[in-house]
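To illustrate the input format used throughout this study, we show a single complete record. The first block contains the structure-token representation of the backbone; no residue identities are included at this stage. The design step must infer an amino acid for every position from geometry alone.
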């Protein structure tokens, strides 16, 4: 089974995991890995061997157990370092959240990003807000739709061939 994954359709977490069955020595041994959580399946992959250790699949139109737990936890936003989960045959502890596909953008509190704003608000500084039908971008920096289309055609000629 290939463990090469793209993060477009799944959330990625760095985790510690241990089997829930076996001898006391086996249950005490925690291993490092990654957990990929998507709607169809949750996959636990070992970091050393790069092999899938556990795959939890959903049935039909119902999501798998890992995805259902992630949705119940605010689409994964409440899963912080130290959060413990139970997958079939494994106990899993979240170490780091790498990618949340259900929350693609950071939450913005609505304040203006100006001088002295933190890096978490830098994305908001580049947005254009419309007030009463007029943008806050000066007219000299606006481009017409023809200019934008021409720029796109030059940047991606293989799409417009």
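Output of the design step:
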């Amino acid at each position: 089974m290939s463990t090469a994954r793209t993060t477009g359709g799944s959330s990625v977490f760095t985790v510690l995991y241990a089997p829930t069955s076996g001898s006391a020595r086996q249950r005490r041994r925690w291993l490092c890995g990654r957990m990929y959580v998507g709607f169809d399946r949750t996959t636990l992959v070992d970091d050393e061997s790069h092999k899938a250790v556990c795959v939890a699949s959903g049935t039909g139109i119902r999501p798998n157990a890992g995805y259902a737990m992630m949705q119940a936890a605010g689409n994964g936003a409440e899963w912080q370092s130290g959060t413990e989960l139970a997958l079939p045959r494994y106990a899993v502890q979240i170490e780091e959240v790498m990618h949340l596909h259900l929350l693609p953008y950071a939450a913005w509190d609505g304040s203006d990003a100006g001088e002295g704003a933190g890096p978490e608000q830098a994305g908001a500084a580049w947005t254009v807000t419309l007030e009463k039908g007029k943008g806050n971008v000066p007219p000299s920096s606006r481009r017409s739709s023809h200019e934008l289309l021409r720029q796109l055609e030059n940047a991606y000629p293989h799409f417009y061939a």
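Structural context for interpreting the output: Residues 117-135 have pLDDT under 50 and may be disordered. The first strand starts at residue 11 and ends at 19.
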